[in-house]
Design brief:
The chain contains 33 helices and 25 strands. With 824 residues, the chain is of the alpha/beta class. Among the domains are: 181 residues, Ribonuclease H-like superfamily/Ribonuclease H (Nucleotidyltransferase, domain 5), CATH 3.30.420; 81 residues; 209 residues, P-loop containing nucleotide triphosphate hydrolases (Rossmann fold). Pfam families: DEAD, Helicase_C_2, RNase_T.
Length: 824
Amino acid sequence: MTEKNSGHRYAIVDLEATGTGSDAKIIQVGIVIVQDGQILKTYEQDVNPHEDLTPQIQLLTGISNKRLQKAPDFSQVAEEIYHLVEDAVFVAHNVKFDGNLLAENLFFEGFDLHTPRVDTVELAQLFFPTLEKYSLGNLAEELGLDLKQAHTAISDAMATAQLLFKIQEKIACLPKQTVGHILEFADHLIFESRLVIDEIYATMSDYSGEDCQEVQGLMLRKEIQRKEMRPLSQDFSENLAQLDLEERKPQKMFANLVKERLYDEKQVHFIQAQSGIGKTYGYLVPLLSESTQPLLVSVPTLILQQQIMEKEGKKLAESFHLSIQSIKSSRHFIKLETFWKTLQREDGNRLLNRHKMQILVWLCETQTGDMDELKFKQRYQPYFDELQHDGSITPDSLFSEWDFWRRLHSKAQASRVVLTNHAYLLHHLKDQNYLVDQRILVIDEAQKLLLTAESLASQSLAIQPLLQNLQSRKDRADNLLEQRLFESSFFELQQLISNYQHLGVRELSAQDLDQLKQNLQEVDNLDGSLQELSWFLGFYDHFWLEEEVIDGESGYHLRASQMDLLDLASLLPRTKTFCISATLEISKRVHLADLLGFTEVTMDELPSQKSDQQEIFLLSDLPDLVEMNLTDQAQWIALSLQEWSMLGQPILVLFTSRALLVAVSTILDEEDVEHLAQYRDGDEMVIKKRFERGESLILLGTGAFWEGVDFASQNQMIQVIPRLPFDNPRDPLVHKINHHLRGEGKQPFYDFNLPVMLLKLKQAIGRTRRTDHQVSAVIIMDKRSQTKRYSHQIKGFLKDEYYLTMTSSQDLLEKVKEFFGKHS
């Protein structure tokens, strides 16, 4: 009888060391020997490095200098370690560090280690392609590894052994065709990591299972058959219980109001409700329970769209088998034919080839083809730009039947709820009728619709290509007149940039562009970008310059829009419409309905309620940050954050300026203060999740963090607002609205700009009050809230909505500590 061949013998090794540099010394060794999915032996040993550990290493590992003084030298344990690993495949999480360090130390003791090496970081990235991070701690959380004490050698080695088992299981669950395809690129993996894949592949059955289907050599996940939707109860509380959610009085009031307006004879309903009451369930549940009409829900940002799909959408789908489809621009989705073609070509870049392998795994899992599921795209963005779907599907395409973009629209048409964003909605109102046809329309955060519409209605032209084109046409001109016209046009555009650089002239009058416009009108046979520029100058009536800095190089853009506000009401479908937000009423004299162009509407406002779980702190003795230069502002904010971090609470800092955020982050880096910063540490959703996992106590954010990203998982939080969120008066939309209001005899600052700032502030404060149990302290550092002529309106607004405390910087820590103490 022949004995079955055993698989590879793996030595999973983890080393703790005095540092991460080339001079690091081993202080602890953990080894786990495994074979055929079984742990055969474990080994753990402290090692005396004969030098003191830094406080950081002691804190990280829990190992003291006193403990290591009793441990043997590495020379005393080297032989035992060598014999454990010499005939095994060497495995580690970041094998380059552990493998090199151990081999070097063994070499100096006379033992030459030449074992094959496997890196579980890269294998985890390959076979679990949708995770955000691949640290051992994060993988333990995501995959359920038993990591009892991180940064202890034997504990890390045991967790890495479990990770290896998970990787082997995952490979075995994939279709054999996919694994074979991966092996075609596996030589691009570091060291000998392909050995793990080879070993599993040799034992795999040719049967691919029922979950995937082969299409032109690619294994693609079959669509999951939808279950019939379970009817919701007409009792809102009963539906919440089904969703395993607690009932909240304001949310129930909101839901009842939505239900009431559903039966109202008017078509358009504006409802204002404060943040933090759970508005998404508040409109979805009654509309789904009271009507059989499908819904179209539009939200302001992709981030919020993703949040709703991951949270409310997922819960409703699980509890009621709701068919909900998220739809966004085609560029987010993979074009299978393009990917298939890249597999046929040879690419030398190791990282690009690893991405090919990751996508092969992902295609066996994804139901959507949405590349946003892949969190590593930015590591080789040009490749993913190449794979973006262009929105076109030809019948003769090899993948026409399986095209994700086509399937997305097919599923969306049959879905009870379609979720999209304002930009996509406005862009496709005309060419995708099914989006709005016979659907109830819900515009969530409706105040953002106007900004989105104006952004889409404006246009931008890069100036540098125009200058190049003008120079080229001048050189090729047949006559002197054309040469002079192109030369004059070139000069006019250069002059705009010069005035911006030296005089700060951003806004442009019609007179500034008259000569350029006239020149182009006199030229025959304009084409390309110059023809577009001529049309651009003739169509729009409001122009300005924008500067964009990429890799230290400035690029200039000529932007334009119409001075009159868009009549959005005329663009939107004549269907039952709910406009919902915490910020619908701009002021007593200006309502969002007016700005959007709606006349026949209902207006409802839910009463806001003060909560003792949130308190606003105004500092009486801070300098006027607005009057300081950027460096001094950043210094004050960074010093304050260092002091407030002593409270040990998560701190969310909301900036109105990217430049100030970057300046504060730079100072915190110089002071070795751990923090997460937008732009530096990933996109909004990535750093939000890292912050919620407790990777850092400080998060610096701007943009979507003001009103599109919720923080519900931290029970206690500090929110810091360095500057009040006034709109830039030079912003084209603000300029346009101010012009519109002046024409109606209103005061733009008091009727619009100040109220909008207060409503933005209200929304921002609502980011950290998302549950009935969450407690947050909000610190406002902007002295304008106390010194300006309009400060009494700011304080009055805050007192009406929140509990307000005036305090000195010196007493702040104690006051905030007392506040959290009351709710412990």
